[in-house]
Amino acid sequence: MSELTNTRDDRKGFRWRLLTTVSAVALACFGAGAVLAADDDSDRPSLWIELGGQLSRLDDSQQAFAPALMDARPSMFSPSQKFEGLSPYSVDETGKLSFQPDGSNWIFSASVRYGRSNVRKDVHQQSYPKSFATHFTYYGSYLLYHFPAVANKFADTSVMADESHAILDFQAGKDVGLGVFGNANGSSVLGLGVRYAQFSSKSNIALKSDPDWHRLYKYFTDSHFNPTRIRWPLGQPYHSNAASLTATRSFHGIGPSISWTASSPFAGNTKNGELALDWGLNAAVLFGRQKAKTHHQTTGRYSIGTNYNHAARPITFQGPATPDHTRLRAVIVPNVGGFAGLTFRVENLKMSAGYRADLFFGAMDGGIDMPKKENVGFYGPFAAVSIGIGG
Questions:
Q1: Is the pLDDT of residue 318 over 90?
Q2: Which spans in the chain are helix H?
Q3: Which of 48, 164, 186, 382 could in theory staple to 98 by disulfide, Cβ–Cβ 3.0 to 4.6 A?
Q4: In sequence order, what are the residues at sequence separation of 6 or more whose Cβ sits closer than 8 angstroms to the Cβ of residue 234?
């Protein structure tokens, strides 16, 4: 009986010793985890400096310049509207400062994006008429005459266009909770702030065309030609049409903005190298001014050339008077955007790459004689490098 009692006592003692050991190990692990967490928090940089760039596809259309004088442009040539647009691409420069006080979930940031593009085009299209040859018998001699072309059909398009854009953001955001998609090291930041945007463009377009150069012929019989019925060129009428447009457009606006950015690490750690999936959305309403100033004119000349002395009797006519148009008005421009990408981080160094888009609805007046709202958009791949300081 005493042996059974001793066995039970030994079992109770073993259970107690096992529980004590497990509790001690758990407390030790918790303490070590708390120390590591504190160390990680203390090593977290309080300031991040980011520099990057983006290859942007521009969505900034304008009304095509197509004066009635150019309606007779020969179909064999490409239309001038094909060459008149602004550059479809720009290389943007980006920068961002983010500050997070120690022990706080608040993040304060300021960012800027600036880009510009230009286009220079001189497109010349023309026909290449051959000399006209005619022959006849003159007092028994066979004669061959060549009449060279004194003009040709042509269409010239000359374009000089510049565009620039700048976007500034000031935001205060808060990490509203860890554990994005079940990842304890992820982040989800909601931000409120102010966005300022400035867009401007200048265009200078010149069009020239001779749409209908041709030869005039006449069949006739002359006693000098023994007699021979010949086809003889009497003249080469041609037009010389010209049109030009200068346009300056701009938008300046500022307004409240909201954003949501998230990051979810999925491989590695910050000590040896970590990969994270990043994404975000942003929206803003900008209140600002939209301005457009345009001037265009047309001039035409008609000339009757001859094959005898190449003289011309030009007749010049001006197109209808087109006074300068200057428009200035207050507008409200909605803005939405977003991005997605990957980030590789090693301690205080981050390298990011992805795709970003921003669209501003009705930001520019792209009209010539009348207002015409046009959207402005920037979308394309981006890359950035960030360095953490402090902590």
A1: no
A2: 2-43
A3: 48
A4: 216, 217, 218, 306, 307
Other Cβ atoms closer than 10 A to 250: 20
- The Cα diameter of the chain in Å comes to 159
CA angle 179–185–187, rounded 5-degree value: 65
Half-sphere exposure of 10 (CA within 13 A, CB side): 6
Listed residue (269, 285, 294, 308) closest to 372, CA to CA:
294
Q: Where are the domains of the chain?
A: 1-43, 48-389
Stretch 66-82: mean pLDDT: 77
Identify the pLDDT of residue 228. Answer: 53
Q: Torsion angle of alpha carbons 24, 30, 32, 35, nearest 10°?
A: -140
Tokens of 257: 């903005």
Q: What is the mean pLDDT of residues 242-266?
A: 92
210 CA to centre of own chain: 35
pTM: 0.75
List, in sequence order, every beta strand (DSSP E) within 306-324: 315-318
Dist CA 106 CA 248 (whole Å): 42
Identity at 170, one-letter amino acid code:
F
Strands 141-147 and 154-175: unpaired
Look at the block and give the residue holding tokens 């096992």: 18
How far apart (Å, rounded) are the C-alpha atoms in residues 191 and 5? 68
Measure the CA–CA gap between 110 and 170, rounded to whole angstroms: 5
How far apart, in whole angstroms, are the C-alpha atoms of residue 325 and residue 295?
Answer: 7
Query: For the domain 48-389, what is the CATH code?
Result: 2.40.128
Burial of 61 (0-12, 13-18, 19+ CB in 10 A): middle
Whether the pLDDT of residue 252 is over 70: the answer is yes
Q: How many CB atoms lie within 10 A of CB 209?
A: 24
Contact yes or no for 254/194 (Cβ under 8 A) = yes
Q: Distance (Å, rounded) from C-alpha 19 to C-alpha 29?
A: 15
CA distance 293 to 369: 9
How many CB atoms sit inside 10 A of residue 95's CB?
Answer: 15
Q: How far is it, in rounded angstroms, from Cα 311 to Cα 2?
A: 142
